[in-house]
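If you are new to this repository, start here. Below is one unmodified record pulled from the training split, so you can see the exact layout before writing a loader.
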Amino acid sequence: MYTVPDQTGQLAIVTGANSGTGKEAASRLAAAGATVVLAVRTPEKGEAAADEIRAEIGTAQPEPKLQVRRIDLADLASVAAFADAMIADGRPVDMLINNAGVMTPPRRYTTADDFELQFGSNHLGHFALTERLLPLLLAAPAPRVTTMSSTASSMGRIAFDDLAWEQRRYRPMRAYGQSKLANLLMAFELARIATRRGWNLTSNAAHPGFTRTNLQTSGPMLGRDKPPRLSPTNLPFLPFQEVRTGAEPLLYAATSPNAGTGTYYGPSGLLELVGPTKPARLPRRSRDEGTARHLWTASEQLTGTSLPAPVG
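And here is the target side for that same chain:
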């Protein structure tokens, strides 16, 4: 079991922290002494999660420092409002964990800004959040940005001529794969940008293998009364792991002194579905620096964000 190093004095933001790997990450960071912002779409669920985390940590340690703040990654105005509120507070951000996601809704849904829901939430929402928070991240002594991807990134392809799936027949898993490949490309391009600009910022990524959370049910259930006949939750021949283990690659990438920039972590067992954390296999398309640069530029144009101006 991975032990999170002491995080006393650190400020961490975790998206999707009301359940699953996000809640587990928030709980273990808080137990290690960090102040944790639970960045969630529904504040009531965030407050309930915060209460559960306090109960889990118990009284043997100091009262966990938890804040619940609203963000809807499917609405760029909400992302901007969240970032503006953090900037108004003025406290440097030591750690941003881009964890929240939506997986395989049965038909093409769109965000508030008319992007395909998976690409818009999983990638563009986190991209805009990351760029908007860079001034606070760069004000911290050794900031980290860790982004959750998936083994589904291996089936992803960035279709620059149809990022929103308007021209092609919508295929839920292919759209999910595109969004998760975009997460990897963003993480690696941010690492290269930081190196070029001389920023002391670590950007890396992780995936949870096959960890059973509500991610696999909430997306496929959109617009349905009952689960589909075949879904990621009813494949009994696949090994799976619980959330406590599934969150460990994310926590390792975000907190281990041995987790470097531009790296990727996942489970070490069969097909990287389960097991202790190790460096994960990189999908071939995630190593394409030209695609990463193109995606970064396109994402800035789509979200209306930009990198901070160089200092000096």
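Two things worth knowing about this chain: The chain has nine helices and eight strands. The mean pLDDT is 92.
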